[in-house]
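Standup notes
- HV: blocked on the assembly model, inputs below
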Amino acid sequence: MGISLDLYDCEQPMKFDYNPETIEKKWQNFWSQNKTFKTDINTNKPKYYVLDMFPYPSGAGLHVGHPEGYTATDIIARYKTMKGFNVLHPMGWDAFGLPAERAAMRSNQHPATLTKANISNFKRQIQQLGLAYDWDREICTSDPEYYRWTQWIFLKLYEKGLAYLADVPVNWCPAQQTVLANEEVVDGKYVETGDPVEKKVMRQWMLKITEYAEQLLEGLEGLDWPQNVKDMQRNWIGQSKGLLIDFKLSEAAESIEVFTTRPETLMGATFCVVAPGHAIVQHVQHEYKALVDAYCKKVANMSDRDREMAAAKEKTGVFTGLFVDHPLIDKKIPIWVADYVKLGYGTGAVMAVPGHDERDHAFAEKFELPIIEVIDDNNHLIHSEGYDGQSVEDAKQGICNSLIDLGIAKETITYKLRDWLFSRQRYWGEPFPMYYDDQGQVCTVSQKELPVVLPTIDAFKPTEDGEPPLARAKDWLQFETPDGTMTRETNTMPQWAGSCWYYLRYMDPKNSDAPFSFEAQQYWGQVDLYIGGLEHAVSHLLYSRFWHHVLYDCGLVSHREPFKKLFNQGMILAQSYRDGLGKYYHESEVYEKKGQYFSKDGDEALTTMVEKMSKSKLNVVNPDEVVSSYGADALRLYEMFMGPLDMTKPWQMNGVKGVYHFLQRVWRLSVDVESNQLSEDIVDECEPSNEWLTALHQTIHKVTEDIESLKFNTAIAQMMSFLNLCKAEKQIPKAQWALFIKILSPFAPHISEEIWAIMGFESSISRAQWPSALEQYLTSAKVSINLCINGKKVTTLMVDKDISYEEAEGMFKTNEKISSKMNGMHIKKLIHVPNRLINAICIK
RNA sequence: GCCGGGGUGGCGAAACAGGUAGACGCGCCAGAUUCAAAAUCUGGUGGUGGUAACACCGUGUCGGUUCGAUUCCGACCCUCGGUACCA
């Protein structure tokens, strides 16, 4: 044994060469044993709260897209710590959700068991990336100690009248035996499985998010969020200001109320359209009744999506036989019922102005209804008796006023936003803290009795009579009180519930008296930086803002908005390979020949695409394989080096080599690979070249700036350039080299810790102070300027900074290269852009 | 359709406030080292022409503003993401 070991050593002369596997394990253990990243309230330091959108721990594990955002926040967390901030940087699990429940149904294991296994895999994968999380603050939404407070907040919502029961048509998926959210249904199918979805009226818990529409809209103003996300939320809330106008039925006392944003087009209204199901439909008589009823019935059976798709292609509708009187002129207007008008928006009725509304226009053309233009090209009214010639603005005012004076109209604001359907007929979610008495009246579980723990049941599927799975828990379902037999709510909350407030729990995760203490909340305040994917631009970010606003109104939090700055990381794409039949091949099943890819099994030519990573496309890149070949530091570095954080970028395994190489060279420059001691070239005393010192300080400066603006790719490029420059130095002063290792450390913490230790520093580099660049090296005395003739660069010159126009002119005229290009031309005009260029306009 | 990104070498990408492209990395080529290969190191590398100095062309397309445009303006094409009759 001894002999072979010696032999081994002989064959591996560089036995202390860069070895990420050993040093990364070493430092991960060190951090966890020393609780290096543990945070507590410390009023002596400014706080900084940097948050990742916590993951849903799926069975598939992490892919290479997850660490992108995690690395970015980690760099910020480590950087801010070194800058003297008290940093909160937590991680947890959004653990309730349908996939675990479906897996449970298939394998007949408890979802909690599966979730636990998934979490431990996720945690292992995340921990091997060396992220500076305070794991003592780890939370899990499916933990009763967590969802106890989710239930508690729900009770707050209920107390404030923001939660109510309603019979609403919902997306019922027979195959899954469950109700789906709108965002889960595409083309009448469940997005996850493709199972068909139909409409079914059910009793559901709803949250009155519409009551906060105005506030949620206003709150966006002051947020440092990407413009597009704000726009998307504004669109979703969909505020529109307009007029409600009564149109009286010609032959009955009733009237219909329509909503319009363009009252100035009133004279162009040639018909009205009501949504199927509108109350006025009851007044339809005689020969029209059967047709209208049949139409309404047909539409009611369609899913929202199908209905929209169909209506977008071709307008459908039927005449009701009813007429209304035009409110201002002597004219009868027919009422039609059509599915392009929706019951849930406005009043479910519109005055159709085919001259100025595309949808109305298409409808009018199809059914040969009159089309009147009432506004000309100059934005003045025509064909509008009494208002002809007025500007749109004036006419709008005038028409509004006269309708309001007549008492048949009022100004109003409507929202596209609808109340939030908040219950699911599923097992794996938070039980509602609600029950019903024997009269069917709703009762709340008292706060002391929380949590209502999810009961254990025999199968995770609905009961035979279509009740939610929780109805299977017979012993749990009912309980006796002096007032009689009580029956618990069997719906559970949607997955969004837990993620609505998790960022608050991180502030005080162990609190057993409250979701979080007021003090903790007051100290940590808003999330200073929140990084996650764009897919949550509306849903999660709007729902959690809503809850936060409510908590604010309850006096539980001191800021109205939870997330001060938001940043969306771009998606990471990967190359996929497909044959003529559309069958996908894994990278390991293909080979490359002259830039063309072929399948190994049949030598078939394959087409390649760069697309979203997905299991079905066999192009998912697992971070584990990257870590095992190149180490976590290289993975982190590559994730950040690929390109700008917010862009979608293709994954290229070869690219990892480049950053690995960089780390290796940093290592070899720092460490004597024979002895594992500090390299002999890193010395206490020496005089580095001025170029080197300048580059060092410029690097410190650039890296600092780039971290602040989340431009990690160029920060890394700068460090690489600096390293390239180090080759020219025979010796490097230790004190200065330490500065470089410090600025590298947020990006590549393991190697930096190891080199730091080898340099003889005793405490973790994460506790070191961030260096600042010396001003004297940031400004140089010489600059290079271009000399141009007629806008074309002729030569580049190094000159003193800030030379005068006269000096520049002289320099230009005496320059040999310039003279040789003049060919008898003379200078008409000379442009001198200080420190940039001198350009002469020359003519013959 | 609408809204928002994005089109720059063989590839991922740089370029401050308009200042005269392609930083950094991958790949490729050549050399060193090696019995050889891998690894490593050194140099080169936008295209076309030329031994070369050099010349011309080059940031999706067409046009405009400017001494000067990847950057500003207008029209269009392609691509990715979001969204969907919102009255």
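- HV (later): unblocked. The two ends of chain A are 87 Å apart (CA to CA). Residues 1-12 of chain A have pLDDT under 50 and may be disordered.
- Next: hand off to the docking folks.
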